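Budget justification, computational time. The allocation requested in the original proposal was used primarily to generate structure tokens for proteins on the priority list. As evidence of use, we reproduce two of the resulting records. The first is shown immediately below.
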Amino acid sequence: MKIFKNTNMQFIHAQLIIYYREDFGNPAVPYLTWQNLFNRDVIKWDSPLLSTLKKLGNDFEVEHRPDFLVIKINFLPENMSLFMRFLKTLYNFRSFLISGSAPGTTYSERKKQQLIQASFEDSVKNFWKYYSKNKDWEKTIAFQIAYNHFFPGSIMGRTFITPQRLKNLTLDHIRSFYRSTYKMPNSTLIMKGNIPRPVIVYGTIEKNFSSIKKHLHLPEVKQKLLINPEKKVIILNVNENNSPVIFWFEAVSTYNNRNLVPSLVLNNILFLHPTGRLYLTARNLNINPIMLNTEIINHNTVSMICNIIHLRYRDIEPFIMMAEREKKKLRVMRVKRREYLNTLTNLIGRLKVKTQDFENDVNIEKMKIPYNTQQVTQAGLNQIADKPDNLVIVIVGNAHLILQYLTILRPQVKVIDFGL
């Protein structure tokens, strides 16, 4: 647990990370579990968890990743006791554990269980309808596709949800997964804001959940991930006329390894908008890429760097080919000293700046940046540039329009279509 006190903020940000520590078999189970816990469109009964969140201010967001879940909540300092109640309700949620046919079950309990069952069935039946309501659903599927390619031999590689994997699921799968996963030992809590008496808050949370810790002995599971180095270009067909988006994924060694920060610096030398090599070259080729973001997702034994780029349909192939050429040039022409220093300074400056961006604090805490920046050298960057790419490119857009503009890349392309 980490607590950052910031009296300049009028409210508190909390981020609860729940790690998955078992092979849950069907990749839809974790997603359906949090849908039946937090999604108001799905839940058809009076959930104590949602009632607590409503009293807390109802300002929350849930993100599902292949091996962890993130619950983000904003609330006022005077509602700290309600936040404690939310944690207690989450870790002691009993509604999935009710057995409607057990001896002595009351009518109200049976009725409640029927509503819970109906909510679950609705979440399965309308899975893609609810899935596509998430503003970042394209990015979520793109990440799943990349994990499926990079890590075919691990639990992360089996997180790609398809219509076939929704069949034969029951509420028992949800019960089992919830009981083994949503526990304090599997969690990390990070809070930032105008926190009253942070030391007391820290101690209270530890005290309230110490009994839960004592009775749970979950083994540490370490998956050996097999990275497939073969490059793939995958199109996720979306029947919309919006501009296509490229998700450019690269797998990097462990995030607590000294190679992560140099890899991030090298990535910024190429992709940083608008000063990276790609964008300087793109101007001369009349390509107008719009860089949305660079994201880093950390897992137990690997990190993923994802560059998200908006393009016109006709610019997709020229941009990808240009990126390939620039990466090859990097191996031949090497990283220039001024380029390396400017990029490193920019990275450190963005990470060290005092800000109210909660995600910035979380990333610094997770990656131990900027401490690892001491290990970044010009020679080290050139050494990483010589290594083969662990690369997957996922293009989200209208597959028919994309394929019209592909010639050189067309033999490498695989199209995935869910009818979305």
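The second record produced under the same allocation is shown here.
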Amino acid sequence: MRRIVLLVGMIIPFVAMAGLETLEAEPYEIPREVRIPAELKLPADTILISYSEYLVIPGSWLYTGQKYAVQFTPPSYPFELLAIGYLAYDFTDHDNDYDVPCDLVVFADGETPGAEIGRLNNAQQTEPLQVAFFDATLLDITINSGSFYCAVENTQDTFPVLAMDIESPVHRRGWMYADVGEGNAWYPFSELISPDYPDMSLADTLDPVIQVIGVTSGGIVELEPDVTEIAPTVAIVASQGTINYILNEPGNVEITLWDGLGRKASTLFTGYSESGEHSLSWDSTDLPRGAYFIHLSVGNLKATSKVVLVD
């Protein structure tokens, strides 16, 4: 596979397909019953599809018209797209960076992002360190098979800078539209390397923080992990105040809660657990609304899940 050194340069701004309707981005209020896909998925569930765990660093600065994208594969079909979210990096030494407007673009399936099928103009993140979601219902996009791509497109040079997740597991779904020395084109992260780390592609370490919310309309589907690992898994249903976790082997377990700034908020459980499925109740009523992370460790094995608390 070819490896291209990442040297981002100015490119010609991307032009939407002729006749394609575009909309102004409007904030989307996350429903209380949004679920993070777990082992089984029921019909008509509103779900969040995310390939990021929220330990973030800034991505490369882009110029007008350049994009980062993520390939999404729904757990069942048809999948109705309700909202698109992204996280811009907040540089503490620079004012007005994360809240610079950008466009959110949806592309059809393909070996690279395909035809543009929808666009939300002037999306603007208003809170630092929190994914901003925008209403995509009027784009009327339903995915009946395969995958689709969502991108954040810069509408001015430099800012916003999309956040990149560096937490494991790495999902290898990132793409970039830029000129990296071979013309203006889409490049998967697996073909891009940093000059500082010539033996490692971006796909080995980074996931762009772009997420989608939608409705699954199919029957019950069993989801398989991207990679089979001998490690505990954690599934969280925030609306029920429950943490469900599975251990392949018995051991001493610690479950901790972390806020979006990477600060430990509390210890939810410490103790010995047998192998198998376990359930733990937790009270989130006194916590500020926003994104949190629940971290499980048992021996040298670790797993992390994200939960979004909403009113």
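A brief technical remark on that second record: The mean pLDDT is 77.
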